[in-house]
TrEMBL record:
Family of this protein: Belongs to the bacterial solute-binding protein 2 family.
This protein's name: Substrate-binding domain-containing protein
Limits of the Periplasmic binding protein domain: 53-319
Source superkingdom: Bacteria
Cross-referenced Gene3D superfamilies: 3.40.50.2300
Length: 347
């Protein structure tokens, strides 16, 4: 073979390779989707035409998550030509996985998920990645098998807990209670990271403000009001000599459930300092003008979290803007005097 023949063959091989790469690039552009790692938000867009986003939520019948889905739908309506398919997963991890698979089969453009259990994070992330569909977490963080966090919209759990603990400490000091006749009940789902962050933050802030504070008793719940009420009963019975109670929890359900258990056991409202997390249940007694152990709550807006998540996903799909690693919503303490003015939706 001559040198000229070798050069000609090599030229043809390079040209063929370039053609293959060019075809791949055209195909990627026409699909409007590229696969990427969770931390980059699965680069996508721009994509014209209608968009469909699956919004898969644990405990979708709770008011917070109803508000969150409505917030996402408001963002979709404002953006135009975007459909939000909200699905209630309950507390069923198997349903969560099957609904991710169903969303993929329906060829949705994006997936936002509030997982019932963070342990399924690697599986749902991989399913979405294999399908070339961007996925982000709301409320509860998830990671892939390598420990890379998916983009997230929600709250800073530790900061939330610190606000709750600081308010509880302020009310405790104002009441003039002592550690000897007081106990703190901390109710939460103990295998959920965000819950642990919240109650740890509450305890840290309370301890910082009150150096010789009461004993903290943990109450494990499934984050429902009914379970919190049931689980608190045994603890209250075992501490029959306690006069005063401070209560906080992972969410409004846990806190109000414990306060209800205390009041049902005969503890007067004046002997309970309950600081909720959500405000959508704690406000019920305020709305009714009742004496209650629910003295304050951290107002968290599910609407704003839903809007932030949907807007981020729409921006990715429409404009190719990477999903932000974290979108953190604001929170503030409310009570019977100002909850309506602050925009709390009381259920």
């Amino acid at each position: 073979m001559t040198k000229k023949t070798v050069r000609t063959s090599a030229t043809r091989m390079v040209g063929a390779a370039i053609a293959v790469l060019a075809l791949a690039a055209v195909t990627a552009c026409s699909s409007g989707m590229e696969t990427a790692s969770p931390d980059s938000g699965a680069a996508a867009g721009p994509k014209d035409g209608p968009l469909t986003i699956a919004f898969l939520q644990k405990q979708g019948d709770q008011q917070y998550f109803i508000d969150e889905a409505n917030g996402a739908k408001e963002a979709a309506q404002a953006a135009g030509d975007v459909t939000i398919n909200a699905v209630d997963l309950g507390t069923d991890s198997n349903k969560a996985i099957s609904e991710v698979e169903a969303a993929i089969a329906q060829q949705v453009d994006g997936i936002i998920i509030v997982v019932p259990d963070q342990q399924i994070g690697p599986q749902v992330i991989q399913l979405a990645k294999d399908a070339g569909i961007p996925i982000m977490a709301a409320d509860d963080t998830i990671e892939d098998a390598a420990g890379n966090a998916a983009p997230f919209s929600g709250f800073d759990g530790t900061s939330m807990g610190e606000k709750v603990g600081a308010e509880a400490a302020r009310l405790y000091e104002e009441a003039g209670w002592t550690a000897a006749n007081t106990r703190i009940l901390s109710a939460y789902k103990q295998d959920l990271t965000v819950c642990q962050q919240r109650v740890d933050g509450a305890k840290s802030a309370f301890t910082e403000a009150i150096s010789d504070g009461p004993e903290v008793i943990d109450v494990g719940t499934d984050n429902s009001a009914t379970d919190a009420q049931d689980k608190a009963g045994a603890v209250i019975t075992a501490n029959a000599g306690v006069t005063n109670w401070v209560v906080w929890g992972c969410n409004d359900e846990s806190e109000t459930g414990v306060v209800t258990a205390l009041q049902n056991s005969g503890v007067a409202a004046d002997n309970i300092i309950g600081v909720g997390l959500g405000a959508y249940l704690t406000c019920k007694d305020w709305k009714a003008g009742q004496q209650t152990g629910n003295k304050a709550a951290l107002f968290i807006s599910g609407v704003e979290v839903g809007k932030a998540a949907a807007n981020s996903m729409i921006d990715l799909l429409r404009n190719g803007t990477a999903l932000p690693p974290q979108s953190i919503a604001n929170t503030e303490i409310v009570d019977a005097s100002n909850w309506e003015a602050k925009g709390v939706v009381c259920t």
